[in-house]
């Protein structure tokens, strides 16, 4: 065991696969471990470079194994796949991880703390409840549409449907339909209350954190986006530039270039889908404000006149992502260039 310098650990729920290699990369062992044996096994080894795929429970195991004295690095699963020689087995995966982790150009995922994982859980719980509320609203609209009762689009107009459901004098709803739809209405109201509770807690946490307060000065960035950035991006300095950060989120064009000809397509949609969705929603809110305010970002109004709304929203989301990276790495708060220009003009 003294010759082992690199370990590839294929994670699982109960049965783990571990591949060991020496300094030259030659295989030393490849064996299975039960869950209870993992930490005892690593405690007997000299300090090693340990590689794991960034999947479920990876951050927990990374913290536990690093506490023993090993250098633990998490790899994106898509970067490990090219090193799998043939077939899909735990032994082949562990060997591929051990080989990939030694590459000089490999990109790694920063290990999250338990507090950062907790923040992600808050955001994902809110997203789950929002999806469930949307499903319930769609069910209510479709059922009432079958009876000829239609309400305008928008979540605010669901209240008018709830009034109809609870109005026992409204003969358009049969008793059985009213009984069933009342359950859906109550489900929507319960989910709305729980979402509001989570959002209030997110706002409280955003006010306590200095970085999150600075991020909320950016137009289109609220407490939820600020918390998502802090939770999903534990090390913003790990990105070389603002463009690398935007590319990680998936907001940059996908390249199809060859033979000296540069071809850029749609956005790549790689990276973190939750953060990308939130930034696009925030950018859309900014665009809706810009439409009716002449003094707010005239260059955006010009772009809206030339390009579709969603295309401009994605472009603005890319710009917001770059602003976020700049504030996190260089400090300070957002300063509106229009206000700076007006302040520079002498009276």
Class by helix and strand content? alpha/beta
Give the strand line-up of the largest sheet: 3-2-1-4-5
Distance between the termini: 77 Å
Beta-sheet strand percentage? 5-15%
Give the helix tally: 14
Topology order in helix (H) and strand (E) letters: EEEHEHEHHHHHHHHEEHHHH
Describe the secondary structure blueprint for this structure:
Elements: E1 6-10, E2 15-21, E3 27-34, H1 38-43, E4 49-53, H2 58-68, E5 71-75, H3 77-80, H4 90-100, H5 114-146, H6 158-166, H7 175-208, H8 210-215, H9 223-232, H10 242-249, E6 253-255, E7 264-267, H11 273-291, H12 298-306, H13 309-330, H14 337-344
Parallel strand pairs: 1-4, 4-5
Antiparallel strand pairs: 1-2, 2-3, 6-7
Search tags:
alpha/beta, 5-stranded mixed β-sheet, 55% helix, two-stranded antiparallel ribbon, 347 residues
